[in-house]
């Protein structure tokens, strides 16, 4: 049964795009798009001089470029980014361009995101001394941007300045902690680095939820500015709720209970803060970020466990939401007791809960279909391996056994007439028996499960060191052609990729010895290029003009293509420009990691 074709929905294409460019770049592009739309709207409205707001765009694009550049040249990009911040501040102050406030006052979203990315990459990749100097320069440039874009020192009040320093400190510590934990410390990966990578992989699947939470937190940041420090406890609870929601796929049941506790704390604290005096938005008694987080956790819980095992915890969360609506939806007069208002809030909450459960069940169904497709692919692969064993049995063992039978019959017929012929036949029978016994031993090792079906002693150890196994394979010279190598392989190559790579090289070299007539040399190259393992096997032989000894099953390339397809890679095989045969394969490293994780 063939595997189901990959879906081509908008969500799938968006996910593929995010994986291709990376989550940091995707967030930066989203911030850039937001700033372009916001600046264009501000430049064309009737408030103030028209088109003057377009003066912010050069600075915004320059900071976005520095944020992207930091992924390759972190230290240099950090210095240039700090200079851009200072220059843009002078530019804005001189031309009286009205900047808008985001997380930091008078600093755009793109500048904030780009600054955070530069701090992260500098702290992670630059040497300690260089990182300290560059991050310090970025902090100074950020302070210049915050305080220098006001008309005068008296234009910024103490509360706004204090909040700017507080949020600036959070934006500085936020990227520094994971960056320091992920710094390279030698060939062996630090356990904290591996944990951080798992968190990053988790975030890759949560980017739509992260985007919604980011926009919700952005608005809460903005309203917190207008309420001095009164809104900070609620903002802190919203940040915790967002973190729990992003990490919820690992332990969705516990995450939902933890989120319910955070929302309960927020609902109880809100009446004592008197936020209604500052028009702090709490729609339905629950902050917007916590609403989005609750929907995300419900989606992940129903996706992982289904509705039958989730409804009790969902009921707990719904009770907390109902309590928050009663306590805070009518903050000016106290408890909400109007039946009509409560019915509207209940309808809205039920609608959002139903949407969350429906999305979760839809994703659960899609995961089930994907699992079935993977199982079908595995079953097909196992069938292909059994067919490989059958071909091995037919092409090698049966060939030798048939030769033994023929030689024995000839010896019996000619023994009386010419005893020397019988002696010679016995020698040939002995050689054929030795070869058949070796082939049978290889098959027994595969069938006992000591190695994957159809593999040999070389591929059994591919999970430890691919480079050493390739050298052992080439040094054995079973294919009979002198072979040189070029290897550039990392020590942490995914096991599934290593096993498949070794099998591909082994099959290619076997074909060299079997089909490449007059070949005097072969060449094997294996190296990692970006996120792929590139394999290349070439020879200088010519095509055979006769059928190979023992015949040919004709399934060699078919099996190689099946192995590459299971890892979502690419395979190219054909005549090279110099007349020899050329086999090239590109195996994605991420495919091997996903396969291991599924196991």
From TrEMBL:
The keyword Transmembrane helix applies. Residues 385-449 form the Signal transduction histidine kinase subgroup 3 dimerisation and phosphoacceptor domain. Residues 502-590 form the Histidine kinase/HSP90-like ATPase domain. GO terms for cellular component: membrane. Keywords: ATP-binding, Kinase, Membrane, Nucleotide-binding, Phosphoprotein, Transferase, Transmembrane, Transmembrane helix, Two-component regulatory system. Its EC number is 2.7.13.3. One of its GO terms (molecular function) is ATP binding. This is histidine kinase.
């Amino acid at each position: 049964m063939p595997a189901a074709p990959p879906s081509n929905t908008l969500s799938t294409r968006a996910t593929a795009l995010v994986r291709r460019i990376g989550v940091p770049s995707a967030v930066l592009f989203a911030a850039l798009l937001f700033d372009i739309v916001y600046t264009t709207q501000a430049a064309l409205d009737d408030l103030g001089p028209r088109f003057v707001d377009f003066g912010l765009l050069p600075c915004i694009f320059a900071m976005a470029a520095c944020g992207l550049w930091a992924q390759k040249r972190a230290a240099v990009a950090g210095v240039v980014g700090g200079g851009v911040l200072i220059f843009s501040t002078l530019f804005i102050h001189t031309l009286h361009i009205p900047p808008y406030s985001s997380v930091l006052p008078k600093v755009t979203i793109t500048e904030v995101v780009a600054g955070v990315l530069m701090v992260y990459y500098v702290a992670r990749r630059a040497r300690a001394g260089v990182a300290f100097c560059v991050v310090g320069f970025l902090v100074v440039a950020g302070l210049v941007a915050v305080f220098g874009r006001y008309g005068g020192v008296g234009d910024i009040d103490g509360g706004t300045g204090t909040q700017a320093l507080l949020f600036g400190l959070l934006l500085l510590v936020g990227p520094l902690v994971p960056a320091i934990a992920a710094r390279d410390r030698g060939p062996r990966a630090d356990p904290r680095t591996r944990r951080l990578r798992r968190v990053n992989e988790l975030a890759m699947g949560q980017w739509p939820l992260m985007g919604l939470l980011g926009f919700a937190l952005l608005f809460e940041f903005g309203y917190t500015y207008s309420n001095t420090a009164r809104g900070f406890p609620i903002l802190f609870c919203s940040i915790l709720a967002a973190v729990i929601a992003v990490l919820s796929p690992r332990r969705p049941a516990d995450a939902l209970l933890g989120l319910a506790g955070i929302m309960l704390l927020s609902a109880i604290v809100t009446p004592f803060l008197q936020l209604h005096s500052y028009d702090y938005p709490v729609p339905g008694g629950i902050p917007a970020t916590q609403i989005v987080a609750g929907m995300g956790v419900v989606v992940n819980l129903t996706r992982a466990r289904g509705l039958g095992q989730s409804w009790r915890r969902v009921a707990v969360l719904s009770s907390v939401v109902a309590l928050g609506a009663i306590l805070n939806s009518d903050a000016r007069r106290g408890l909400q007791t109007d039946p009509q208002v409560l019915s509207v809030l209940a309808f809205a909450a039920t609608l959002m809960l139903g949407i969350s459960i429906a999305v979760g069940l839809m994703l659960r169904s899609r995961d089930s279909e994907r699992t079935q497709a993977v199982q079908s692919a595995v079953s097909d692969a196992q069938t292909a391996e059994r067919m490989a064993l059958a071909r091995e049995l037919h092409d090698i063992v049966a060939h030798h056994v048939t030769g033994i039978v023929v030689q024995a019959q000839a010896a019996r017929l000619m023994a009386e007439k010419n005893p020397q012929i019988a002696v010679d036949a016995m020698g040939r029978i002995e050689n054929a028996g030795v070869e058949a016994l070796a082939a049978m031993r290889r098959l027994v090792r595969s069938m006992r499960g000591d190695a994957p079906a159809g593999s040999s002693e070389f591929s059994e150890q591919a999970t430890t060191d691919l480079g050493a196994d390739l050298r052992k394979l080439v040094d054995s010279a079973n294919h009979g052609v002198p072979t040189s190598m070029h290897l550039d392989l990392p020590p942490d190559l995914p096991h599934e990729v290593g096993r498949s790579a070794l099998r591909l090289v082994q099959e290619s070299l076997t074909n060299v010895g079997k089909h490449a007539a007059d070949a005097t040399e072969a060449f094997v190259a294996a190296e990692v290029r970006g996120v792929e393992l590139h394999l290349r096997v070439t020879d200088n032989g010519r095509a055979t003009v006769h059928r190979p000894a023992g015949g040919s099953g004709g399934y060699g390339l078919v099996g190689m293509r099946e192995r590459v397809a299971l890892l979502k890679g690419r395979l190219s095989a054909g005549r090279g420009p110099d007349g020899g045969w050329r086999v090239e394969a590109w195996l994605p490293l991420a495919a091997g990691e996903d396969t291991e994780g599924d196991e």
